[in-house]
Amino acid sequence: MLNAIRINKYLSQVGVCSKRAADRLILAGQVLVNDQLAQVGQLVSEQDQIRVNGQLIGGKPKPIYLVYHKPVGVVCTNDPSVAGNLVAALAYPERVFAVGRLDKASEGLLLLTNDGAIFNQILRAENAHQKTYLVTVNKPITQAFLTQMAKGVPILDTVTLPCQVTQVDELTFKIVLTQGLNLQIRRMCLALGFRVHRLQRTQIMNLSLDGLGPNEYRALSLQETTHLMRLLSDSKS
């Protein structure tokens, strides 16, 4: 089979969904290859006829890269049955998905794309790609808090990786992470006796929230896209 790749990678590359989501669709029996149920790990090529939920999947589309200011209340899912889902909030004419998540109560920068190839390259902690957050907590920040946050905090049966933490004012700090554990910043703060009142992601790698109001998006410039691809060139997927 010429240029054969795993089916989850193929569906990711053509912008259907992430590789993990593709595996879930396959296990749910929603993917057909040449009119036969697809199998997880199956090899396919562009010569195969592939359908997802009955829809024929074509070749690789032109890549789309957007930065989006997610407001509080929007849920990072493309599932139309979920109230406040990303598709309804964004109203973008083509299918894109978020690279990484922000929980419903958080706000800020999301990278949206149909290019599944960059998904794991950005999110894998070992690639050390930085994401920056501004966090406001419920009581005055102490030096002990800043030191422990930077050193690492035990959560979710592990210890978070060392990170950069800088105090902004009495209640607000900036934190730069290379990890993306579930509700990581909220859990880190709670473990140290603080509660998060506001959490905003302001930057992903070279991409900034600057100039975007809540629920606004824009396409990456050629310069931003070129820089992003250069940063990802040596990343593991």
Shape: elongated
**The CATH homologous superfamily of the largest domain:** Pseudouridine synthase I, catalytic domain, N-terminal subdomain
Oligomer: single chain
The N- to C-terminal Cα distance equals: 23 Å
CATH class of the largest domain: Alpha Beta
Summarize the main sheet: 9 strands, mixed
Report the CATH topology name of the largest domain.
Alpha-Beta Plaits
Q: Helical residue percent?
A: 10-25%
- Radius of gyration, in angstroms, nearest whole number: 19 Å
Listing every helix as H and every strand as E from the N terminus to the C terminus, the arrangement reads EHHEEEEEEHEEHEHEEEEHEEEH
* Low-confidence segments: none
Average per-residue pLDDT, rounded, comes to: 91
Structural class: alpha+beta
Descriptors:
17 strands; Alpha-Beta Plaits; nine-stranded mixed beta sheet; 23% helix; 237 residues; four-stranded antiparallel beta sheet; alpha+beta; Structural Genomics Hypothetical 15.5 Kd Protein In mrcA-pckA Intergenic Region, Chain A; elongated; 27% strand
Description:
- Helix content is 23%, strand content 27%.
- 27% of the residues are buried.
- The mean pLDDT is 91.
- It is α+β, with helices and mostly antiparallel strands.
- The strands form 4 sheets. Strands 7, 8, 9, 10, 13, 14, 15, 16 and 17 form a 9-stranded mixed β-sheet that branches. Strands 3-2-5-6 form a 4-stranded antiparallel β-sheet. Strands 1-4 form a two-stranded antiparallel ribbon.
- The protein is elongated, with a radius of gyration of 19 Å.
